[in-house]
Amino acid sequence: MKRVKVGIIGMGFVGPIHLEALRRLGFVDVAIAESNYERAKTAAIKYNISEFYGDWNDLLNDSGIEVVHICAPNNLHYPIAKRAIELGKHVICDKPLTLNIKECQDLVRLTESRGIINAVTFNMLFYPLIRQAKIIVGKGEIGKINYLQGYYFQDWLLYDTDYNWRVEASAGGNSRIIGDLGVHCISMIQDIIQQKVTEVYADFNTFLPTRKKPKGEIRTYEKSKGDTQYEDIKVDTEDQATLLMKFDGGAKGVFIGCQCSAGRKTKIGWEIYGSKKSLAWNGEEPNTLWIGNRSQSNQVLMKDFTLLDKPAATFCDFVGGLQEGYAETWKNLMKTVYSAILKGKHIENKYPTFKDGLYIQKVVDASFESSRSGKRISISENSS
Fold it and tell me: Is there a single domain that holds both residue 13 and residue 109?
């Protein structure tokens, strides 16, 4: 198998996750870039990487790099992706794809015109039981989808001394709860039921309008130290959001998320209610799928490749009872995207692309507009 040279830009929270997943593929050589030379050198030593850059432009100018992984803050996604595409490199970008619809559309156009393989990291689509849920719904086993709910709760921004660049719209985008958390639920739900969100009605709340931003550096999920020096900043993103949704196949649903939920670390999940049965899944127990029945006992389907349909079983590397989790979703995502890269051709409907990132951004922007206007907002496939 040919080896592929890859560049990862950004080694904060998610960059090392990309690195681990890539190393598990077995045929990838990695270079990294950070915001300056010292940061890049420190990360290179920590993760045993021989090639590193203190400027992402220098990494992109490396002619040997075929694929670029964008793990930088959200406001850098567009300029990095655009330059990488112009240089003929395939691009895997963390969500959100960009901060607005116009930038997303531009990247979709560029990738299509230049034949660039592209993906957005909605990694939770690659849990085996998420794939199985899609199969169950597709077979009609739960009947017509009537209603659904999704949720995502965290507590890492509970205090006013909790800070991350995501709380500032200039770096993270206009919406934090929908744009950063809700998109994982929405991408799963849309894929499982094969229906797209067409209308939203949103309520955003900011419980901490002012936060204390450390004058020194603080990493994602890292807590401030007692002697930290702060500056007060105005928060212009939401701490909590409730989103009512309509789907193009007739389903209706709600998403609720909050990053000020004491005791909740990463509580993500969904429930889908059909005319025959219900399905439920949560990320704290990702190896089980609950199946609800009216006239017989409820069921719990375990992650076991002997029990799942082949398209889902493909993502089971361990036998039943041996748990597979979050890290495996990244490995499964990379395995799928890199199968296309090795073939040099996009594989339709196998992984989330920039087009999917664009549609999700339409949902995010519509939610933001709804929260500001107090009105229901429709989403169109062709909306600008």
Answer: yes
The residues that bridge with 292 in the sheet, in sequence order, are 278
Residue 211 · residue 176 · CB < 8 Å? no
Rg (CA), the chain: 21
Q: What is the mean pLDDT of the chain?
A: 95
pLDDT for 221-266, tens place per residue?
A: 666 666 678 899 999 999 999 999 999 999 999 999 999 999 999 9
Cβ 328 vs Cβ 317: under 8 Å: yes
d(CA 186, CA 190) in angstroms, rounded, equals: 6
Give buried/exposed letters for 292-318 (b at 16+ CB in 10 A, else e).
beeeeeeeebebbbeebeeebbebbee
- Residue 49: other Cβ atoms inside 10 A: 18
Residue given tokens 């230049």 in the structure block: 114
CATH number at residue 25: 3.40.50.720
Tell me the pairing of strands 252-258 and 145-153.
parallel
**153 and 267 together in one domain:** yes
229 burial class (0-12, 13-18, 19+ CB within 10 angstroms)?
exposed
Q: For residue range 128-142, what is the model confidence (pLDDT) as tens digits?
A: 999 999 999 999 999
Q: How many domains does the chain have?
A: 2
What is the span of the domain harbouring residue 203? 126-323+367-372
**Residue 70 falls inside a structural domain:** yes
Residues 185 and 300 in one domain: yes
